[in-house]
Amino acid sequence: MLSGIQPTAGSFHLGNYLGALRQWVDLQDSAEAFYCVVDLHAITVAQDPAELRRNTLTSAAQLLALGVDPSRSALFVQSHVPEHAQLGWVMQCLTGFGEAGRMTQFKDKSQRQGAANTTVGLFTYPILQVADILLYQAARVPVGEDQRQHLELTRDLAVRFNGRFGETFTVPEVFIPPGAAKVLDLQTPEKQMSKSLPGAGCVFLLDEPKVTAKKIRSAVTDTGREVVADAANKPGITNLLTIHSALSGRTVAQLEQDFDGRGYGDLKKELAEVVTEFVAPVQQRTHELLDDRAELERTLAEGAARAREVAAGTLAQVYDRVGFLPPA
Ligand code: ATP
Ligand code: MG
Question: What PROSITE patterns does the record tag this protein with (predicted)?
Answer without folding.
Answer: AA_TRNA_LIGASE_I
